[in-house]
Amino acid sequence: MARNKHPEQTLEKIVETAAQLFVEKGYEQTSIQDILDVSGLSKGGLYHHFKSKEQIFGAVMEKRILYVNNLFHELIRDTQGENAREKLKKILYRLAIDTKTHSLDQAVASHVEPYLIVGGMQGCVLHDAPIIAELIQKGNEDGSLQVDQPELCAEIFSFLLNYWTNPVIFSRKPAETKARLDYLQTMMKKLGLDILDDALIAVLLKTMHANSCLDQSQQKRPS
């Protein structure tokens, strides 16, 4: 049948449509029928690829994780700075202001998948932290940073910034998140990794607060 000619395009259409609806309506308020209506696909076309809305959500989140990982590596490659410390600060700021990176935060808030969280943690420690550690080592060499154990420090920083301070995972209010970002800033300064400044914290909080407000408005909508 025609819909089976290009299964990869059908798969992509489902994921893109679902991502759009999860952002606009929230996960709980989005139904399979909504996805079918917007995508124009048949039930057979959708269920050929996914058995449930949860599976679709998993595919949406995996695509988002891939996007963030690719962006991170591009920024590592392309960002310029007068020293390694300034380069790291610029990379963190770019990630914080990237709207696509945070577009699904409000959908995640209402539907946290443990396996995605664990997978993200593993990627953070096993893949992202070693790259950050290399930049920290360069900072030690150029004198802009003074970190005793770059590898361990990079793991701690990546893990705490992406998960411990994440209000989506713990359903925290902005004030609670700020307290943790402030504490992380103090901790990293003591470890010689002074890259989390007040301006970056303000940007992170603004993004988190905007997503939190949107999530609350979605929850008030009738099903």
UniProtKB/TrEMBL annotation:
Domain of life of the native organism: Bacteria
Any single GO molecular-function term of the entry would be: DNA binding
Q: Which residues bind DNA?
A: 31-50
List keywords of the entry alphabetically: DNA-binding
Ranges of residues in domain HTH tetR-type:
8-68
Q: Which PROSITE patterns match?
A: HTH_TETR_1 (PS01081), HTH_TETR_2 (PS50977)
Q: Which Gene3D superfamilies match?
A: Tetracycline Repressor, domain 2 (1.10.357.10)
**This chain belongs to which protein, by name?**
TetR family transcriptional regulator
Q: What species is given as this protein's source?
A: Holdemania massiliensis
